Structure prediction request, 812 residues.
Amino acid sequence: MMLYHDVLIVGGGLAGLRAAVGLCDKYDVGLLSKVYPIRSHSIAAQGGINAALANNPNGKDDTWEKHTFDTVKGSDYLADQDAAELMCQEAIKVVYEMEHWGCPFSRFPDGSIAQRPFGGAGYPRTCFSTDLTGHVLLNTLYERSVFKGVKVYPEWFVIALVNDGGQCHGVIAFDLKNGEIVPIRAKATLFATGGYGRVYFYSTNALINTGSGIGIAYKAGVPIKDMEFVQFHPTALIGTNILMTEACRGEGGYLTNKDGERFMKRYVPNAMELAPRDIVSRSIQTEIDEGRGLEHPLGKYINLDLRHLGAEKILARLPGIRNICLDFIGIDPILEPIPIMPCQHYSMGGIDTNERCETDVKGFYGAGECACVSVHGANRLGGNSLLETIVFGKLASFAIDEYLQNGEIKTDEGLLMSRKEEMEKKIHGLIREGKEKPYTILADLSKTMSSLVGIFRKKEELAQALKNIEAAKERYRHVHVSSPKLHMNHELLNAVELEYMLDVAHTIALGAHLREESRGAHFRRDFNARNDTDWLKHTIAKIGKDGEPVISSKKVMITKYQPMERKY
Amino acid sequence: MITASEYTFKILRYDAKEPEAEPFFETYRIKVLTGLTVLGVLLRIRDEIDGTLSFRSSCRSAVCGSCAMVINGKIDLACRTQVATFGSNTIVLEPLPNFEIIKDLVVDMTPFWNMYEKIKPYLIRTSADPEKEIEQSEEERSRIDQFVNCILCASCYGACPVLARDPEYAGPAALAKLERFALDSRDERPASALDAVNDEKGVWGCDTILRCIEACPKDVRPTDSIVSLRKKLIKHKLFGKGIR
Prediction:
């Protein structure tokens, strides 16, 4: 069996759905999703989406240019400024579009979309729907895709991207329900597969966020970019690491140490709790490392205190946070502070794309968290990730439309069939006797990443991480899966994804080891300042003939914001 | 202090691809920290004890709706249920009722999505969109709040006694979704849009015994939406009123 679509979209989150909605009237579109689209990780985003609507009484003179400046400064000047400009301009249009499609945003008394302050932003421009903004946006786009009749393949997983001489021919997919390996031919393929949070042991991300899409593209010879830039969110619930939105601080929440001190005044007195995430995470980690954290059987922590906001505001603006605290740690934030620690949250790096979502490979596109345009550079601002998914999902649909209009595109069935046979052999090869279970390798890998490639990094630890990853790759050769049945075999899925996660982790650690400076979320204790002379450039990793990464660099696009010291 | 205890998990096993094999309960004994969730235990069982076990999961924070199942006789999300909340150290897990089983705890949700799609779950407008946002007051926004919160986990669908006897019934989630749009001040669907649910397969099929409300992990009250849709239909019939 072989399937065909003009456009194949992989990923049913916001970026994938937005692209599908934009293309399905004109083309035969198929959307593959590892889970039902509505289960995608976009659903878990809480705080909001940035757009300079200037609705907030305290932000009437906000503009997309100011949004761009905040984004570029927040990125520690590693963002490509033309792409950031485009995103911030488009922001206003896509927020209105989502509203017209039914998104139930919270409102100001004049009936306009409500906006709240967020970290690193000079204006209160984060549009939101209580603290369930990802939930409402994903529901709205899914509803739109139902209205448009988008063809969805739920619980289908891509196991290989098929490229040949710089041209993409489609993918080899795995139908989890039926346990079948199916080649899918397509003129254009878009990956919107999400981030790589789960290569870290401590992560706010869903279990599905393995980054395997990035690994699949990399294995197929597509360059990937800036992998060393990993965002650590300041406030994750201890134990489960569930996200406590930045909106907690946007609405006025405090961070306090064991002495009850609002310690941010010693780090960033002007911005306090609303400094950008990289800076707040380092401040929290420093408090904990220097003995001013609090103790809990689940680990050391800092308090996120919302009590002074009062029950009414918490119930109106942060109801989801309250429910999570009640469900998962038995704490009511109206009455008690929330115990938090920083942990992995977002992947700034990813598939190297331009502002048209194009990659090095013709017919292959990337959008959303799996892509690196780069609009976030070395550190993403809160409220810009939901924005990126929708804007670049939309722009991908424009670019793909142009590509399909411009002449004949030949896809090679024979190539797909031979790749399918290879993948069949590989999958059956995993079902065998062996001494390694996928989860033990992943547990060791992710612990290495959390302890040695974390918030604070240094050369010796990064070198050790690279050794550990090499050892994990060696162990992977002996991995085995228990059941010979292919359908609904989640252990098999884990084993397949693990191979790609090993490459993703490798490129993160390698990029971090090579980049001898501190910029945004990448902080080197042994090189603790930004170095624009040597390092104002993107890191590019491409798989070499021997399977090892080959590293090169790429220029950062600067338009009108000259790099300067990043002070808040 | 967090302590570890030995638990016995009895999990329903079945594979629709081997219909001759009867469903059975498989027993797993595992030592877990008492703070662990049912999903946490399931992941450990699959990783460490039995890689053949199938169940769905993703967000592990009660927002994605993947892991609804029957836990000691009660429907809930496995990710938000702590093992220590039961009086006993034996926990029985079964797949959601009112669905065909695909494998173990994984059910075929197709009928659920079909019902969802049937009620036209999207904003319908006849007037042109303004350049900026369609104005809506916070009070109007708050009217749809509880229905917006639905995570489509199908807990209500599994709990519904009407669906148990009539698989063609629309079910609580789809009707609550319809009410979410019918109540939205921006929606302009005609009253005739409710015709599709104006029968025993729709709003008149409900027994109003509130099992869906009891089962919902997100405090949505589908029965309220069904009663409200019934009122709208009656008002429309008697007084020719629109649906708002």
Summary: Chain B has two domains: 4-107, 110-239. Residues 110-239 of chain B form a domain with the Fumarate Reductase Iron-sulfur Protein; Chain B, domain 2 fold (CATH 1.10.1060.10).
